[in-house]
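Lab notebook, bench 4. Still working through the backlog of constructs that have no structural model yet. Next entry is a single chain of 167 residues. Request: give me the structure tokens for it.
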Amino acid sequence: MSKLFKNFFLVCVAFTSLSLFAAELKIGYVQVDKLLKEAPQTAESGKKLEREFGPRSLELDKMKNQISGIESVLEDETSALSNAERRSKQRQVTNLKIEFQRKQRELREDINIRKNEELAVLQDRINNAVKKASESEGYDLVMYSGVAYASTKIDITEKVLKLLSGK
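Model written out:
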């Protein structure tokens, strides 16, 4: 019986000391998805990517219009064109479509690579801002995601957004 009592006593002491420790622990939570949406760097990054890939996107639009133009000529003038001319225009459309799809795929891949690079830079800025806010407010633990519930009392997302905004 005394061994059972000792174990019970140790468990009680452990829970009591754990609850005392938890009472002194300052915990915070950050909504990463909100930071990624509302951080000024996100809009800045989007504009940067648009400037970088805008000309290529315009080129693809022109190419698409060119394809549509040739297809419309083919439809409108099918009876007026000789077989050789019609085959030539169809071959031209096919080649342009293949080229268009290749360029479109390359553009998508390049945009995805650059988005990931920009996201990595933004994540570093967010991590630094979270660390700065946590240290200045005296938090012992700050959690990002994977949390089933977080009270608004421990949500420091707005503080981090202010740091990211430079306010």
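Notes after review: The two ends are 64 Å apart (CA to CA). The chain has a mean pLDDT of 83. Flag for follow-up if needed.
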